[in-house]
Every structure is written in C-alpha cells, then in structure tokens.
C-alpha cells in the first residue's frame, strides 16, 4: 500500500506557473466528504520521506509541498486494523510538517506551498456529519424526561482525532506564521474556505470546536479583508439557530469569538453593530438550551454595554420581552444578567426602564419557586442597585410593596420569608413615611378588593335564588331569543338607513 501511494507521485517537478485554477472543483473521494475549493493535483516529484534537515534549503519548500501531497490520502479510522503502517506514516509526516512550520526556519511560503497546505487541510478536515451526529446538546431536552436522560450523555469523539488534531495544529501555525503573506494567502483562505470552517462548528467533539475557535480567531485577526464576511456568516448561523432549528453545538464557541471581536469595535459604534446586538444577541436568550452558552452570551452583552453605556436600557427591554415566565431556571439566569447590567447602568438609563423592570421583579418576588424569589430579593444586597433604588424609591416602592406583603402572608419557603422581612426593614429604614403610606394604600386596596368580592358573591347568590324560584320554561326562552333577534335586526336596519341617508346628502351636496 505504501509503495502504491509513493508511485502516484510524478518523478519530475512541475513549475508553479502550471498550477490549476483554484476556482475549478473536482469530485471528492468517496470515503470522506471534503472541500471542493482546491483541485486535486500533485505539485512536486521530490521524495516525500526525506527529512527536512537532509534537504538543501533551496529544496525545502518543494519537499514541504511533496509531504503535503502525501498527507492528502484519507484513511478509514473506524477500523483500526486497516492500513496501520500508512496511518502511522501519515501521522509522522504531519508532525514533521508541524515542526517545520513552528521552527521559524522555514522560508517565506510560496503560492504553490500555500495552495498545497490549504488543499491538504480541506481534504482532511471538511466533512459532512451523519444525521445522528446532529442530535446535539442544544436540541436536547424537549421534555423533562428527555432532558434528564440526555444530561448524562457524553459527546461522541471522532476516531480520526489523533490525525485531525495535528492537521488543525498545522493550519493554526500556518495562519499565525509571519512567513505567510495575507495578500497571497487570501486567494486560498477565501469565503468558501471560511464557510466550511464554520460548518465544522457543528462537531460534537469539544476538542475540535476548541481548535476551530483558535483558528477562526487568527483568521479574523490576520485577514482584515474577510472581517465583515466572517461577522455576517456567524450572524447567519445565529439567525438559523434562533429562528429555525435551535440545533447547534458550537454556539458557545462562536460567541467566544464574537466576544473578542466586540472588544475591538471602535467608538461610536456602527449601526451594523447595534443591529447585531438587538437582532442576534438579545434573541439568543430565547432558546431552551440557553444554559449551554449563557456565560459567553452575557460576556458579549456586557462588552457592548461597556463600549456604550446607553445600550443598557435597550438590553433590559429586550430581556423583558423574552422573559421566561414558565421556566424557573432561565428566570434565575435572567435575574443574574439583570444584576450585572444594573451594576454598570447610568441613572438616566435606569429611570427609563425602572417601572417595567421592577414590575417584573415584583412578579419574581412572589414566585412559588424559591430560587427565583431568593434571586430577586438578593438584588437589594448589591450596593449599586441599592443606591439606584434609594434615589428612585418614590416610584419603585409602590410597585414592589404589594409583592413584599403577599410574600409575608402567603409564601411557603422560610428562606424567602426571611429575605422578604429583611427587604421590608431596608425599605423602612430608607423612607419610613413612604413605607407607611404604601402600607396604608395596600390595606385600602385590600379592603376594596374584599368589598368587590363580597359584592360579586351577593350578586351571584341573588341570581341563583331568582333562578330557583322562577324557572324559565322552553317557551319563555324561545320568546326571549326571538325578541333579541328582532331587536338586533331593527338596530342594524336603522344603521343602514342612516348610512344611505348620509351618502345621498353627500352626493347631492
């Protein structure tokens, strides 16, 4: 088998001018689904098994290309007994290529070398995952039973990872190498190459997604011409995830990439970036699997607010729009994010959203789920939030006071009762006169509600007594229905007559 691979290499070197057009695509090998970005061709005839140290400096780049061509052979790793010698040869060759790139002694990469390296990476890395591979963590937990069952599942690992890892390392070192000219490399690391890299974030193997994240960081930093396209492509992945499938394994890693991208945004923020915050990051709070990427999402949102504090009120309005009323775990996450935002918000922005925000916090205080109620009540322990409430207590205390009193009277959890009592004491110390006024108003409203309740009960009792003393016969019911129909007919007839009279007068005038 080894001789067959080596015999496929031509004996004479081919000049760089004879390279095929990289835009031409050829069919992929049947065993793996690979990229069609780069045509399959052998670029040199130098013996690929010669070590770099034994080759003259003038021939090292040709030897580099030859070794890359050898590594384009793809093997089946599902069966360890198949081609063990050839697999080991490929692994050693990949390690040699990695050492050559990282040594710093490599000459400046020529265009044929860049072409050959991108081709080797595309053949080995780009593949289509089987359908069962996409039953991923973000599509799990459709119901309670499924969620409990899948929480203990471990991600499946690609048996070819020992080779894939080295290929990823080669690509990472190549992109980061100072010997690569971005103006030349952008012909091969193009839009198609980037899109297929993004498709690999579907992998369930966290090790592979980590490598892809590092490579995409490097590509974004080195190829400035591709930055708008990368941002747009990642946004499209988020759009499909939020509004179509809610199925993707790499949302957390893509958000980590965007977190570092946001830190480099210049001020004032472009409209494109504001739209990304409102149409992508805020709706990402909607999916059920929010907990998988919540930490990375919060970081991105906080970076936007740090860049422009005026965005804080817009973010809170978005969170209130997607508030998870029926999901207690997500409510706790939302309250945690609200707390982080309030720590950085200005007084002006806070006053814009304090009424709807504390109405929602009041609902959380009375939640029967003790973790939600505790998280809402613990907001008063934050010094920044305490100061915001203190400066606006005339508006906030009347909103939350009924929730505090209802908790004191009805809540089942002792910890929530203790926190509620503590918050009441804090509000009393903050403004005792306002607290007493709210308490008096609360008692008045409760008396009014009791009076209305008693009034409704008496009205229903009178109706029940009247119905039991004078039962309505079928004939009486028919007469009532007929009379109601006749009155409706006469009313509609009169309305139509009035409309016709109005139209006639309008036409005559």
From TrEMBL:
Matches recorded under Pfam families: B56
* Listed Gene3D superfamilies: Leucine-rich Repeat Variant
Under the heading InterPro entries, the entry gives: ARM-like (IPR011989), ARM-type_fold (IPR016024), PP2A_B56 (IPR002554)
Quote the cellular component terms of the Gene Ontology held in the record. protein phosphatase type 2A complex
Q: Which GO terms describe its biological process?
A: meiotic sister chromatid cohesion; signal transduction
Molecular function (Gene Ontology), one example:
protein phosphatase activator activity
Give positions of region: Disordered: 1-36
**Signal sequence, renumbered to the chain:** none
Q: What does this protein do?
A: The B regulatory subunit might modulate substrate selectivity and catalytic activity, and also might direct the localization of the catalytic enzyme to a particular subcellular compartment.
Family, as annotated: Belongs to the phosphatase 2A regulatory subunit.
Q: What is this protein called?
A: Serine/threonine protein phosphatase 2A regulatory subunit
């Amino acid at each position: 088998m080894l001789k067959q691979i080596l015999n496929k290499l031509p004996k004479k070197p081919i000049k760089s001018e004879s390279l095929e057009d990289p835009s031409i695509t050829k069919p992929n090998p049947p065993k793996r689904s690979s990229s069609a970005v780069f045509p399959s061709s052998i670029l040199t005839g130098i013996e690929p098994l010669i070590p770099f140290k034994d080759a003259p400096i003038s021939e090292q780049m040709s030897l580099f290309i030859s070794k890359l061509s050898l590594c384009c052979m793809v093997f089946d790793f599902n069966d360890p007994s198949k081609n063990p010698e050839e697999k080991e040869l490929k692994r050693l060759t990949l390690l040699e290529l990695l050492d050559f790139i990282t040594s710093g002694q490599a000459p400046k990469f020529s265009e044929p070398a860049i072409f050959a390296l991108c081709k080797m990476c595309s053949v080995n890395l780009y593949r289509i995952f089987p359908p069962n591979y996409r039953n991923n963590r973000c599509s799990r937990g459709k119901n309670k039973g499924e969620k409990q069952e899948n929480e203990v599942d471990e991600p499946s690992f690609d048996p070819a990872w020992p080779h894939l890892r080295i290929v990823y390392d080669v690509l990472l070192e190549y992109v980061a190498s100072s010997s690569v000219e971005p103006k030349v490399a952008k012909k091969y690391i193009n839009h198609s190459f980037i899109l297929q890299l993004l498709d690999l974030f579907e992998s369930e193997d966290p090790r592979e997604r980590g490598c892809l994240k590092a490579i995409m960081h490097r590509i974004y930093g080195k190829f400035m011409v591709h930055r708008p396209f990368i941002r747009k492509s990642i946004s499209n992945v988020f759009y499909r995830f939020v509004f179509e499938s809610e199925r993707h394994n790499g949302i957390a890693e893509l958000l980590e990439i965007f977190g570092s991208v946001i830190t480099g945004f210049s001020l004032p923020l472009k409209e494109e970036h504001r739209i990304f915050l409102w149409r992508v990051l805020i709706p990402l709070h909607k999916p059920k699997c929010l907990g998988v990427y919540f930490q990375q999402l919060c970081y991105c949102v906080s970076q936007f607010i740090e860049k422009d504090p005026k965005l804080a009120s817009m973010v809170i309005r978005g969170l209130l729009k997607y508030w998870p009323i029926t999901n207690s775990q997500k409510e706790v996450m939302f309250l945690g994010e609200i707390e982080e935002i309030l720590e950085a918000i200005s007084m002006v922005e806070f006053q814009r959203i304090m009424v709807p925000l504390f109405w929602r916090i009041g609902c959380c205080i009375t939640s029967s789920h003790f973790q939600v109620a505790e998280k809402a009540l613990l907001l008063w322990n934050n010094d920044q939030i305490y100061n915001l409430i203190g400066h606006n207590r005339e508006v906030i205390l009347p909103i939350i006071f009924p929730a505090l009193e209802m908790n004191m009277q009805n809540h089942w959890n002792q910890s929530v009762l203790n926190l509620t009592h503590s918050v009441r004491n804090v509000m009393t110390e903050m403004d005792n006169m306002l607290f007493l006024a709210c308490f008096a108003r609360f008692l008045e409203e409760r008396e009014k509600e009791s009076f209305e309740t008693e009034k409704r009960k008496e009205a229903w009792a009178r109706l029940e007594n009247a119905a039991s003393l004078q039962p309505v016969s079928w004939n009486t019911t028919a007469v009532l229905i007929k009379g109601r129909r006749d009155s409706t007919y006469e009313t509609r007839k009169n309305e139509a007559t009035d409309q016709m009279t109005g139209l006639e007068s309008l036409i005559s005038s």
